[in-house]
Amino acid sequence: MTSTILEISPCTPLPERQTVEFALSGLACAACAARVERQLNRLPGVEATVNFAAECAHVRFNPGATGVEQLIDTVKKTGFTATVSTYATRDAEKARQAATRKEETRRFLVAALLTLPLIAQMPFMLTGETHHDILPRWLQFLLATPVQFWIGWRFYRGGFSALRGGTGNMDVLVALGTSMAWGYSAVVTLAGLHQYHVYYEASASVITLVLLGKLLESRAKARTAAAIESLARLQPQTAFVERAGELVETPVAELIPGDIFVVRAGEAVPVDGEVLGGDSHISEAMLTGEAMPVAKEAGDKVYAATLNGNGLLRCRATGVGAHTLLAGIIRLVGEAQGSKANVQRLADRVAAVFVPAVVGIAALTFFAWWIFAGDFTAALVNAVAVLVIACPCALGLATPTALMVGTGRGARRGILIRNAQALELAERIETLAVDKTGTLTTGTPAVTGVFSTRAGTSEADVLTLAARLEQASTHPLAAAILAAARARDLEIPPLAGEAQTVPGGGVYGTLDGDEIHVGSPSWLESLACALPAVPPQLAGQSLVAVAAQHEILGLIGIADPLRTSSRQAVSRLTSLGVEVVMLTGDNPGTAAAIAREAGIVRFEAGVLPGGKAAAIEALKASGKRVGMAGDGINDAPALAAADVSFAMGAGSDIAMQAADITLMRNDLSGVAEAIALSRATLAKIRQNLFWAFLYNVLGIPAAALGFLNPVVAGAAMALSSVSVVSNSLLLRLPKN
Question: Domains in the chain, start-ordered, CATH in brackets?
Answer without folding.
Answer: 236-323 (2.70.150.10), 415-442+562-663 (3.40.50.1000), 446-559 (3.40.1110.10)
